Amino acid sequence: MTTKDVKTMKIAPKVWRNGEFIDWDNARVHVMTHAIHYGSSVFEGIRAYKAERGTAVFRLTEHIQRLLNSAKVYRMDIEFSRKELCQAAVELVRGGGMDECYLRPVIFRGLNEEKPSFGVNPFPAPIDCYMAAWDWGKYLGEEALESGVDVCVSSWTRTPANSLPAVAKAGANYMNSQLIKMEAILGGFSEGIALDDRGYVSEGSGENIFLVNNGKLITPPLGASILPGITRDSVIAIAKELGIEVVETSIQRAALYLTDELFFTGTAAEITPIRSVDRITVGAGKRGEITKQLQDVFFDIIYGRRPAPNNAPWLTYVNDTEEKKTATASAKE
Ligand code: PMP
Questions:
Q1: Which of 50, 214, 233, 238 is the most buried (most CB within 10 A)?
Q2: 228 Cβ inside 6 Å of ligand 1
Q3: Segment 128-169, tens digit of pLDDT
Q4: Would you say the C-alpha torsion 122, 123, 124, 126 has a positive or negative sign?
Q5: CATH architecture for segment(s) 3-134
Q6: Are 76 and 212 in contact (CB under 8 A)?
Q7: First-to-last CA distance in the chain?
Q8: Domain boundaries, the chain
Q9: Which regions of 115-260 does DSSP assign to beta strands (E)?
Q10: 232 CA to centre of ligand 1 in angstroms
């Protein structure tokens, strides 16, 4: 793909690499990079929104913490602190003049050109850390947020936690996700839901899943080989604030067909209703009431129109200088 092709999307012209900003065109790796052969990368997906008071990154600290956790699982020593990585993200959005964007930090095992090593052993490969940003519209389509999507249950099992731990957002996990996604697309569905190795519902190829039954939210527990989704966590906090009961429990495949409402959560997918599973209509076959209520509150928070539950600092405004932050804090005192 040429840069010109890429630039049909709005992308931040600079990429953050190991502590400095470089041009998009120079953000390249060698074909013998360890991660290309052996899947040795961990990454994040983060969104920034044009909130009422300016562009703000949603739950930046939590995303960067999850990135560091993923790196820790794979014994990748990072020379940057959580604060430095958050700062890099803010500068990337601000410097790129992005109103809204998707941020992609990625840490991977690279190539030491002086002393190459091409085997599986990851230790000799240096750790590289990059962050790029681009304008990414609605992941499952513009209409999906309202009308819902048609999905299937995948014939592929989610990788068990003692094989590729879902708690780490590793590039290699997404080979499993790709099998799920390809099968879904070729079957005429927008997305696939994987069951875990015990046959219980785990998650979509890139989303967590929630059922709404008798007014309660039901979602697989963190033990069910799922990524600890930050949108999942946000939805749980919002539901609790709204007085909606949340139950984290094992879910049978058939329960997906019988529930009143069903939806995906994810940074890319946000809160996307599901209107059918395996061509069986879910509930009324359109976005349900509770899904809509949660979506409305979620978007109000994201766009800075409503505080997060317990006034948690979910938004990081990219144009807030340290002085401005201090001034706002002291004005509140
Ligand atoms: N599960 C998987 C497999 C994902 O890739 C994602 C997207 N990061 C999610 C769940 C949702 O996580 P989050 O809400 O943190 O984006």
A1: 238
A2: no
A3: 999 999 998 777 777 899 999 999 999 999 999 999 999 999
A4: positive
A5: 2-Layer Sandwich (3.30)
A6: no
A7: 53
A8: 3-134, 144-302
A9: 127-134, 149-157, 191-195, 201-204, 208-213, 216-219, 246-248
A10: 8
